[in-house]
Design goal:
The protein is α+β, with helices and mostly antiparallel strands. Helices cover 35% and strands 27% of the residues. Helix 1 runs antiparallel to helix 5 (233-286).
């Protein structure tokens, strides 16, 4: 039986995983343009799902303003606000973005981000700054360069920054200096850097990657080498095989645990059945009891599934119930019942033979497996606890007179005296 179940599970898992593989391929071949707010329908290389499915740049449209995630270097890991997206052709787009870090520089003059401003770049996709830009030369202070008279300069940390307002490149700088291209505002004639945080990026997908996506493939980087996975079935089959073996292992473990549980349950049932037989024999030997025995289902019925709780003690909870003859009772459901039940039945037999006006009457009991309960006549006025303990919230309006307290004390004493001297059980 277990082998048949294993085979069925193995077969079904393969069908499910093969269907998943076909679903992945269908997604790759049907990446259609999507609606993105004011930008209208946009598509490859922009996508609204995590790359590399259907594109390389993810745009999140369901927020204001929309944001885009760019790859590589300091550009990766944080979103940029998207101002506009325009198409040139299938592989080229122009995206106008707002760089919030650059915006912070413009408002606080923190130059650390300014001198590390670089355009993202990868073998899959390239970016070109099409907004008017300014070329800066970043030179380490250790080079000890004398500032040319035709260049402006500023200092930032361990670097000196040189630039010209006319943006004319200088060829006289040492090789140790690097260049920075910063976007600037158009038609600016100020004798200072007029950097802007809003600029246009031309996004161009590599020809190889574009051809891969046009054929329904998936363009990825493997150790900086571009690769195109057309069907991805090799990886999916590997996944299927690995998952199948893992599933079989998990199933075998579940079957083993189920077998252990079944064996344990069977042993417990045998022990409980033996204890039940011993108790039944014990009851027969003691003769008929003067009180009724109820099943656990009877207990649930008379208490309306333990709906009205009267109190909680160390041995269990007490619930209000009603017998079929209309008599109200207090049902004490015992917890943590141990032993084979003979001690419980012995106590029930002893208590059932007590009869005194000052001792609550036991009207029945329940013994069914580990379920044990005592059924007493209900005291409609409740417990003395609510009358005599100041900490009980209900005691404030339940003051008892001295005469009543005296009668209660005498009644308790008579009940105790009966249990100690007058009761032959």
């Amino acid at each position: 039986m277990a082998s048949v179940f294993l085979f069925v599970f193995f077969l079904l898992s393969h069908f499910v995983l093969l269907h998943s593989a076909e679903e992945v391929q269908r997604k790759l071949q049907n990446c259609s343009p999507f609606q993105c707010g004011k930008f209208g329908n946009i598509g490859f290389p922009v996508t609204n799902i995590p790359p590399p499915f259907c594109g390389l740049l993810r745009v999140i449209c369901d927020q204001t303003p929309p944001t885009i995630q760019l790859p590589q270097g300091p550009w990766s890991g944080r979103p940029y606000e998207v101002i506009n997206i325009s198409y040139t052709n299938y592989t080229t787009q122009t995206i106008r973005i707002r760089d919030l870090s650059l915006w912070e520089y413009l408002n606080t003059s923190k130059c650390e981000y300014l001198i590390n401003f670089t355009l993202p770049n990868s073998p899959l996709i390239s970016f070109k700054l099409t907004t008017p830009n300014q070329t800066l030369f970043k030179c380490s202070r250790t080079l000890d360069i004398t500032s040319p008279t035709n260049l402006e300069n500023m200092s930032c940390g361990d670097y000196n920054i040189y630039y010209t307002i006319s943006n004319e490149a200088s060829q006289s700088f040492p090789s140790g200096c690097s260049t920075i291209q910063l976007p600037v505002q158009e038609h600016s004639h100020k004798a200072e850097l007029n950097v802007t945080a809003e600029f246009d990026l031309e996004v161009r997908v590599s020809d190889a990657c574009s051809r891969c996506y046009s054929r329904g493939g998936l363009c990825e980087l493997d150790k900086r080498v571009l690769s195109c996975h057309h069907l991805l079935l090799h990886n999916l089959y590997s996944f299927i095989i690995a998952t199948s073996f893992a599933g079989i292992g998990v199933l075998m473990f579940i079957i083993y645990c189920f077998w252990r549980k079944l064996s344990s349950t069977k042993d417990t049932w045998k022990k409980e059945n033996l204890a039940h037989q011993n108790v039944e024999a014990f009851l027969r030997n003691r003769g008929p009891l003067v009180i009724s025995r109820y099943s656990y289902s009877d207990v649930k019925t008379m208490t309306k599934s333990f709906n009205d709780k009267l109190g909680q003690g160390g041995y269990g909870s007490v619930y209000k119930g009603k017998l079929q003859d209309g008599c109200f009772v207090a049902v004490k459901v015992l917890n943590n019942s141990k032993g084979n039940g003979e001690e419980f039945i012995n106590e029930v037999a002893s208590i059932s033979r007590t009869s005194h006006v000052n001792i609550v009457t036991l009207k029945g009991f329940c013994f069914e497996g580990s379920k044990r309960a005592l059924i007493y006549e209900l005291m409609p006025n409740g417990s003395l606890e609510k009358f005599i303990y100041k900490g009980n919230p209900s005691s404030s309006n339940s003051q008892l007179g001295w005469e009543t307290l005296y009668k209660i004390s005498i009644g308790i004493a008579r009940g105790l005296e009966y249990l100690h001297r007058g009761c032959n059980t």
